[in-house]
Amino acid sequence: MEGTFENVLKASSITKHTTTTTTTTTTSTTTTTTTTTTTTTTTTTTTTTTTTTTTRLMLCSPS
Predict the structure, then answer these.
(1) Are 1 and 62 in contact (CB under 8 A)?
(2) Where does the record place the region Disordered (predicted)?
């Protein structure tokens, strides 16, 4: 079935498919600096979240 407007009107049903993908990345870096009298520790944490949503309409032919 081609995706023409007439075919959309003839379709017995239209099904909506939605797919959601979520990706989370966490990066942690620890740095320690020591001098003769002081020790300094620094921790940096970065979190990135990406969400992608894809929606497709599927035409179903009448029986």
Answers:
(1) no
(2) 18-51
